């Protein structure tokens, strides 16, 4: 089948001859997190003990090319050493390992291996989290543990399945505690988990699970067998439907693809999806077509092709004394890029050496649709980016906006459907190229496939596996030609008995025969339908379509638009594109039936999502003929004056008078007249046909323009775009619904002057900027704020007509509230840090305590947007003394407050070691005897925060006073925590120096 690949670049792996290390005995815990995972990771690490009996690997989705600060954060949350998971590093207990965002991490031969994730590309089935979990499941060390935290999508589900099948443990964060519950729910809904816990409880459970005496909960112990049985059911149905066997493939990639279909169909139980596939042939068809992942490219890994050119192809062309054709086989050819690459390289070598040599390349794949696509040799221009211009011009020509391989090269290749695992192989081959396929097969199947490829090669033939296939074949009937690129030469038989693949094809039981007969019956007698791709190519026919589809004269084609009646073609082609774009079924009615000649046909277009990349690229086209009773009457010739009638005795009576009126000359004249009239009718008909074709083309273009305008209108009306248009007289001509956020607009306001409309934002330069844009034709922009404290970026652009004159202005608003608040918070944080730095510096330079703490007081007041007053107090034994902040008269009133549970807020905070928040002192019973103090100095709200050192010694307090009742916000609490920590250090230093 087509290559089940993982990313646009093959894994960077070390030579296969490196020494094999002993398995790691330390348990390994892999933690997968995505969106919202930082908060969960912080809680998890803060709950873990300081000494861990296992190694922790943290896997988080981050874009490549951007530095990660995760290691720095984790180092703040836990004393456990944090290390980078580099290539070749060996995991150790009581360490946290973090891979680079630019790498995909795996565990191989007891050490970490990394390969680049160029461009952030991920191929289905092997993702950042899944790749490591799958490799960890293959590890022979202690029982692996997987933890799935907050995140969107299904990342980690396929890897968790591998961990469970390997006897490992899967722990999932409770979805109710997740910021994003997609990843945990994907595991829970498939029953792969052992524990569902809050983050804090996960830390305790990890310590329990790392104990060798841990026993899995009984409720999930039998999961692996159930999942394997269900997966085998689906594989059997695929084998029966598509004819290729997936039983030798690793379950993780297959399971990943099945998950995508489950997400699409909203089926959350694996067993339920198996039942759906059994009952719904269309879903089975969609699954079958979504399994092959044909990610390939021309001359992938240029260095590998250089090695193949120098060490294999050139010797093959020059040293074959028999001058027989060179035979090459590319199994799992996908869409043909690798096979065409080999053909181009061979042709160039033959031309350079002037060798009278021929060659033939067999390109096979288990998916007939891919084989058909590859045989056409038609590629988009961007797919040929790796091919130099000279080579492209020599081997390709442009056709319909794409590039096609020239016929002389296509004739060198033979494309046929072929299942490498179950079908008989080719023989007497000089070269087999099989890259990025074996890594997806089970170990026993790999041995079988290598035996088949060995048997297909002639003695001295070459096997090209690529750098991602680390199989040591020296001494296995091969010798190494290139260790880096895994190129081998056949030098003898493989040791041991000959291995043969035993395909588990369906037997000839009555049940199997009944299912096959049912499928044939559906295809023959169901409602006439065809399955097509996004290029209108017919992939499968259901029911009887012989009176609907018919080939035309000329080169055979499978294009549906060439098989239906000609008058359908334009409308059908446009509707196919619309159905795929909108992802909604469409029905075409009143189409001319070529059998009855009546407008009684309907065509139903049902789009299908059949690939793993969320692309809608299939359509089920159903033909519905409406029954009509067409009454027909025999010609009544009773009124024909020239009719011959029979007498009762059978004799024919002839009207001789009428017969004499028709002479031979009149007949000849009539015949010539009719012939001329017929020629005129033919010419008129041709003109009408040409006009009809022009009208059809114009109609198609019109429909496309209408569809494009409708799409643009839907986007603008969706609520995400805030735009209005004014003409030269500054009158409103058009606006999007989202503009009601900044103007009180309604439909009747169209035609009113912009000066008459009341804005919901503050912008004094608004009308002036509009005039400036109309006069100078240069855009203007400004940041504005509305009455609800939301911020917008307002832009005004000139609208230029086709004649080049300014016809009005377009005004747009973009919500920048989050950005503005972030900028304000950044400036505030910078001011906080600057104040803390200045206070520390003053203290270090010997400044007095009131001067050092006064810097903090001034920042507390200046950075607030209210009327607060602040003061610091220092503890002297069991009493408090005012240091700085309030007036001298207030200080005299409060100096000497006792630090006790009965004290006021500033003393109580020190006594209990916790903040004392009093939103309104007049409503607080504790303040009843001190309300005179609050009234005298004009405050109602009072907050007090204890000041303590890093060793936990309480040395004073920070108090904030407000004229009106008020409770603190999160920013207030954060500010107080930062400044009391700084004050604690300064006061402690002062006490040590006294």
From TrEMBL:
Source organism of this protein record: Paraburkholderia tagetis
Regions that span the bilayer: none
Coiled-coil stretches: 657-712
Entry GO terms, CC: cytoplasm
CheR-type methyltransferase domain mapped to chain residues: 231-469
Residue ranges with Basic and acidic residues bias: 630-643
PROSITE patterns in the cross-refs: CHEB, CHER, PAC
Keyword Hydrolase: yes
Annotated region described as Disordered, given as residue ranges: 630-652
Name of the molecule in the record: PAS domain-containing protein
Domain of life: Bacteria
Gene Ontology BP annotations: chemotaxis
